[in-house]
Amino acid sequence: MPVPASHNESTELKALDLAHHLPAQADYQLLEDLGGSRIITHAEGCVITDIDGKSLLDGMAGLWCVNVGYGRTELAEVAYQQMLELPYYNTFFKTATEPAIRLAAKIADKMSEGNPDLKHVFFNSSGSEANDTVLRLVRHYWTLKGEPERNVIISRRNAYHGSTVAGMSLGGMSFMHTQGGPLVPGIEHVRQPYMFNEGFGEDPIAFADACVKDIEDRILSVGPDKIAAFIGEPVQGAGGVIIPPETYWPKVEALCRKYGILLICDEVICGFGRLGQWFGHQHYGVKPDIIAMAKGLSSGYLPISAVGVSGAIVEVLKTGGDFVHGYTYSGHPTAAAVALRNIEIMEREDLIARTREVTGPYLAQALQRLAAHPLVGEVRSLGLIGAVEIVAEKGTNTRFKGTEGTAGPLVRDICIKNGLMVRGIRDSIVMCPPLIISEAEIDQLVSTIEASLNEAEPQLR
Ligand code: PLP
Predict the structure, then answer these.
(1) For residues 162 and 165, what is the distance between their CA atoms, to the nearest angstrom?
(2) Bridge-partner residues for 23, per DSSP?
(3) What is the pTM assigned to this prediction?
(4) How far is the CA of 1 from the centre of ligand 1 (A)?
(5) Of 190, 351, 397, 405, which sits with the fewest C-beta atoms within 10 Å of its C-beta?
């Protein structure tokens, strides 16, 4: 068991945090008012522990990423060995390293299931960087094909594709667009397949058709010969775990083929087992031309991301001389060695099938217990990602007046107090636990949400 820090050490670190550290996605004034960040010091399996000795079941796998769970000694050992052998070398100017090459081959093997042409891999360090690569690559591709005016990318409102300028421009979160603009031009945002909010009570197939029609309408209004690609997360994660109707993706794919548009799946959250397949698009049976991946690729043990690219696209890139794009840490050998072993762990422990056949269905069933709760409008999950919608009136999607859009964070804070790390997104609680989560831990996750909803009810009403 980790030893909690002394009171003095905890107080000192919180003071240093406030004085010098700017954490990600934070309201700095609020953080100051709260007396600093929660400092996480230790983790094992699915449990994280903070500096004051409080343990929490990590219902978010860190930030949707620690798929194999915490405390994997063999990943530390692989990193150690690789650092002794070759800690770093780049992949610029006709060089490569063994871990980068072997990892690319391993990813190609996983991508090729049902999509044999998806077999090339470009490395980056984060999901945002992966999407920057996607944007440049797609536009470069169409220029080489002699259609430079095909540079518009269609994305969805409320999509999350990262925090870099390209990532947040591709993303569809309006509150992000208001900071740090102007945005990258040539990105169009269309309707998201968020049934609970935007198609409540509708037939799922008709709702999916309406969302796909919105894409087609936009293609026609911009001009089909100007559209380079469509990008989407198989299941929107940060937008609130938005699981589209099953017919949505095959129809999006058909639309892309109809107009000769590239199909890009952002697999940063859905990749590496989250939906019970190696990649989320494999669940929906579609064949993207390009995919972005990160997070579960290394289970967050080291930063690494990748872009999977079809052979057909690479053949076109070959006609263009240098692709003048890359990062100092593209294919970082230590990160690549850790990612490779991380994938081997998933294979060895059969985590993908376990998610699909055991823990995913178990979570879905456990969440059903919450469906009857007076504050719950909907529970939904696919594999090991899920959401609970909080409503004011049972049987509707009406939110609490006055606190609209904040019920999720309110319940999240109570969950944390009760020993569970989840995320509150607007009026929902979302979860994305490590793929090693046990059935007992799933029960604990669900019953803590239930107890926290009960506790929140008087504050909400
Ligand atoms: N794409 C998706 C779907 C994501 O969920 C995220 C991060 O949550 C990103 C891209 C950005 O990844 P990163 O934070 O590693 O830059």
Answers:
(1) 8
(2) none
(3) 0.98
(4) 32
(5) 405
Separation of alpha carbons 155 and 190, rounded Å = 6
Amino acid 7: pLDDT: 78
Whether ligand 1 lies within 6 angstroms of the CB of 151 is answered as no
* Count of residues making up the chain: 461
CA–CA separation, 1 and 81 (whole Å): 27
State the Cα angle at 431 between 443 and 106, rounded to 5°: 105
Give the integer Cα–Cα distance in Å for 141 and 323.
Answer: 10
130 lines ligand 1 (CB under 6 A): no
Q: Which residue bears the tokens 């939904």?
A: 380
| Pocket of ligand 1 contains residue 164 by CB under 6 Å | no
C-beta of 127 in contact with ligand 1 (< 6 A): yes
Q: 3-class DSSP state for residue 242?
A: strand
Residue 268 CB less than 6 A away from ligand 1 = yes
Question: What is the 167 CA–ligand 1 centroid distance (Å)?
Answer: 8
- pLDDT tens column, 379-388: 999 999 999 9
Question: What's the token pair of residue 449?
Answer: 């949400």
Rounded to the nearest angstrom, the distance between the alpha carbon of 458 and the centre of ligand 1 is 35
Rounded CA separation 420/416 (Å): 5
Compute φ and ψ for 228, nearest 5 degrees.
-85, -45
Q: What is the pLDDT of residues 214-257, one digit of tens each?
A: 999 999 999 999 999 999 999 999 999 999 999 999 999 999 99
Task: Name the DSSP letter for residue 224.
Answer: G
SS3 call for 75: helix
- The kind and range of the H/E element at 408 are helix 407-417
Q: Which residue has the tokens 């859905």?
A: 270
